[in-house]
Amino acid sequence: MFIINCPFCGERDQSEFSAGGEAHIIRPKQPTELSDDEWADFLFMRKNIKGIQFERWYHAHGCRKWFNVVRDTSNDKIHAVYKMGEKPPIK
Amino acid sequence: MKNNYSIISLLKNSLSYHENWQQAWRDPEPKKEYDAVIVGGGGHGLATAFYLAKKHKMKNIAVVEKGWIGGGNTGRNTTIIRSNYLWDASAGLYDHALKIWENLSLELNYNVMFSQRGVMNLAHNLQDVRDLKRRTHANRLNGIDAEWLSTEEVKKFCPIINTSPNIRYPVLGGTLQRRAGTARHDAVAWGYARGADEMGVDIIQNCEVKGIKRNGDNVEGIETIKGFIKTKKIGVVAAGHSSVIANMAGIRLPLESKPLQALVSEPVKPIIDTVVMSNAVHAYVSQSDKGELVIGAGTDAYVSYTQRGSHNIVEGTLKAILELYPIFSRMKMLRQWGGIVDICPDASPIISKTSIKGLYFNCGWGTGGFKATPGSGDLFAHTIANDEPHELNAAFNINRFISGDLVDEHGAAAVAH
Known about the structure:
The complex is a heterodimer. By secondary structure, chain A is mainly beta. Chain A has one domain (3-83): Folate-binding fold, CATH 3.30.2270.10. Chain A has one helix at 36-43, and strands at 3-6, 10-13, 18-22, 52-58, 66-72, 77-83. In chain A, 16% of the residues are buried. Chain B is 28% helix and 24% strand. Chain B has helices at 7-15, 43-55, 88-101, 104-108, 126-141, 151-157, 185-198, 242-249, 311-324, 373-386, 400-403, and strands spanning 33-34, 36-39, 61-64, 80-81, 119-123, 147-149, 173-177, 181-182, 202-204, 209-215, 218-224, 227-231, 234-236, 256-267, 275-278, 283-287, 292-299, 333-343, 350-353, 359-363. An 8-stranded mixed β-sheet of chain B has the order 6-7-5-15-16-17-14-18. Chains A and B meet through strand 3 and helix 1 of A and helix 8 and helix 11 of B.
């Protein structure tokens, strides 16, 4: 339970948002040429990090826009919020 | 040799005010090398060590645990045991465990308080009715006891349920597995720890793993805060922290870790003598032997390792509980907590070898691992000892995410995720 600073609406309760999982997983450019291993990697395998994680969020009960969040999953503290397509402000 | 627990030993020890009970397990320092090391001293890890020693005669093994025995999800779950899963592979896996549960107290000489009080799953809409009836038929074909109950039969089996047609999600019926029930979760960890220790297994508590040493595609040992331990076989049973260990070994797993909450009420006299679960409104409840209502809530829908969980999740569960059981409206909740569960995309576990020789993972049990503890330990021990899965866990290998041969149990996993 925490507050997320939506880049479009401002600070709102987390319950207004849906988590979209790990960010920056790039959709395969040529899906027909992917091996089963590569498909599994794209679809299922996750870093599932304990610590600083880059992730996507969706303001489902608000502006209904997607954006990125940098959050520490060990204590739920949010370090940065940035829009889709932008470079992460933190390494 | 451990002294036998019995009514006679209880009487004998009462004469010395219970101050001279034999130590249940030792507290050893790690040796330099073991034939196998189990990472994680929860129920599944201890059961694995127990069956490695008992069935596969591997005596030189260790269990390393970051905290204390049974202090993780083993002591945080809502203790429900059942085997009414849909697919053949799952039915085989979970019923194997249930059969071991039925004789576990004798096998361990430790009372795990296994109580076959039945588990009832409620249907609240037509799709629930279809799904649950289908699952009942599938269970019966697999030799698992399952019954469909009408609304009246639900009411008769558990009279405190509000079966009025005027509630928001009326009860349209339910299924019942009479062989299902509950057990005391701490006792399971302690019983397996005592049994494994007796056969020479070193249980090393407060020993966090810091790294996994690889030599190419083989494992060489583990780095811990108590030093390096050499071993050729590592069995990881770290539940919500499986991905943390996997990252140390340089592999990725198809897991997401999320907080799952539970809560208990103040103790009251016996009021509910079974376990009732409801997927659709997400409420499940049973009563502990101390008299507390044991209530399971849902997972937070995002990755987190915080072991607490959000208030709105508990609120939603309690709303549903109150509509189904108006009699609980003045109960006070005493404690609430969270545990971190590792969820697979198909809501089925992984009991498997990995691409690294000597590294085995038993994970992905998500919201429902407790029920499988003895079976999981037995099959994981087989997998580690033989470097091959048992036929009952062959379908639960990690390669199913590559082949696409998933075991989708989202319907039978009682917590929606």
